[in-house]
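Record minuted for completeness.

…
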Amino acid sequence: MKNFNRWCVFALIALLFSGCTKDDEPDYADLIQGQWVNTLINGQTVLTDATFVMEFKSDHTELYATGFQWDENNKSWEENSRYTYSIKENLITINGTDVLDDSYHMVFKILSLSQEVLTYSIPEFTLNGEEIADTQTYSCVRVENENHTEFPGVWYGHCITEGSAD
């Protein structure tokens, strides 16, 4: 009976230790996939014309889209899917070139990630080999519905920003 009790104690201890693994961390590689729209920078709301969209695809390519203002009269929406990404623990490493053939290397540190919200900082950012400091915190929400096909055409809105020509 004493041996049986010892084996039970050992089995219980083994069971307790096997329950304490790193599996409690979320699977960022699966959770990150999808489209994300930037909504906050340092907790402050981002204006529509200053936002960006990222899409992390299952083939480890990333699409990045943002508004560009070439000059006072020329604004456009630019999309680029010439980026690749990899994930190790809570770091997303992104490499590629943009529509102007500028070379980027970025490391995003995931601060929190759920089905709805991604919050991250950028501890490493280089543009054409030049390091650029970025101390901001970005929050993005997951895009759940694809509505762009329901709104064909060019849309003009009324800007409420003081001093804007739009």
